[in-house]
Design a protein that fits this description.
This protein is of the alpha+beta class. It has one domain: Jelly Rolls. Strands 1, 2, 3, 4, 5, 6, 7, 8, 9, 10, 11 and 12 form a twelve-stranded mixed β-sheet that branches. The protein is globular.
Length: 147
């Protein structure tokens, strides 16, 4: 009987712990949306709304006239303008292990970027790319546009 109870307890812990681990794997949250904003994950597309979690490799696409504000786990803020298409390429925020990375690719549109802890602690770890240029972050705030 005690073996069955131990097995049930182990299964219950595994089932209950898994969703919590899944929610902690996000790299950022959509804080606000105006207009139509979509998140493309692999082959699935969903509508973004406040509270939508972002993962590495997600694309954020805003319709003409739409905006989206995003906050990453380290406090980095990204505000996208209309007709933007941005992909989160890499994100690592592990202060205890001294591991940091932030990389995004902006195919088109405009955005305001404001550094969080990664940009302050390891500015060389931040990279923002467009079809025409790569921006290395050395400041705390800038506007970027890609056609």
């Amino acid at each position: 009987m005690s073996k069955i109870l131990a097995l049930l307890a182990a299964v219950w812990l595994a089932c209950c712990a898994w969703p919590a681990a899944a929610t902690e794997s996000h790299v950022g949250l959509v804080k606000g949306v105006s207009g139509t904003v979509s998140i493309v994950q692999a082959s699935a597309t969903r509508t973004a709304e406040a509270g939508t979690q972002l993962q590495v490799a997600d694309r954020i696409v805003t319709a003409p006239g739409a905006t989206a504000s995003i906050v990453f786990r380290d406090g980095t803020m990204l505000t996208l303008g209309g007709s933007a298409d941005v992909r989160v390429r890499d994100y690592v925020f592990e202060p205890k292990a001294n591991r940091y990375a932030f990389s995004m690719y902006m195919d088109k549109g405009s955005a305001i970027y404001e550094s969080g802890k990664i940009g302050r602690l390891a500015p060389e770890s931040v990279k923002v790319e467009t079809p025409q240029a790569t921006v290395g972050v050395r400041g705390t705030r800038f506007l970027i546009e890609a056609d």
